[in-house]
Here is the input.
Amino acid sequence: MGNLFHLDAKEMVFKRLFEDYYAPFCLYAKRFIDDADMREDIVSDVFAEVWSRFSEDELKSDTILAYIKMCVKNNCLNYLKHQEYIHEYEEKSVSLSSSYMIENDSICTLDELYKLLLEALKKLPADYRKVFIESFFKGKSQAEIADELHISVKSVGRYKQRTIEFLRQELKDLFPLFFLLACWDYPSTLSCMACG
Here is the structure.
């Protein structure tokens, strides 16, 4: 019985808090978000969290309004950040190079990814291309590559770095996939094609 009475008292305190401050916090959220439904959802979520998290005495405290205000603001900013992320993703999807994207959610096969990599590598000087192939596809060390090409180990490192920067720019969103390809056991004819 004591728990029921305690719950009723908490409900009364929360109901008054909600009735007195729900609308003002929705208005406060308007500083950040124009969408009225989204503002109401955010403020409702904050009040739901307050209900589940705090006791009756905590709901009566002087700091509860500051806490709610902080949560509403942070949730609004998180929502805006998420919206910005979605917008940036959509812009990137639209601006992706047509050389490797037929439609927004198309999937490239392994062979298509290799072809894209080869096309990009062909745009590089022969030594850069050779260093990349020897390092990433054949697993040779920088010292081995330096001996083979009669250049310094430092030059090999510089060639690799510049090649990676070029590929990152050239292949944009697909770039991380190519490191997976480097670990894949693909026919050595690919290496020969890229070097030639």
The longest helix spans residues 64-95. Residues 49 and 180 are 42 Å apart (CA to CA). The two ends are 85 Å apart (CA to CA). Residues 110-195 form a domain with the Arc Repressor Mutant, subunit A fold (CATH 1.10.10.10).
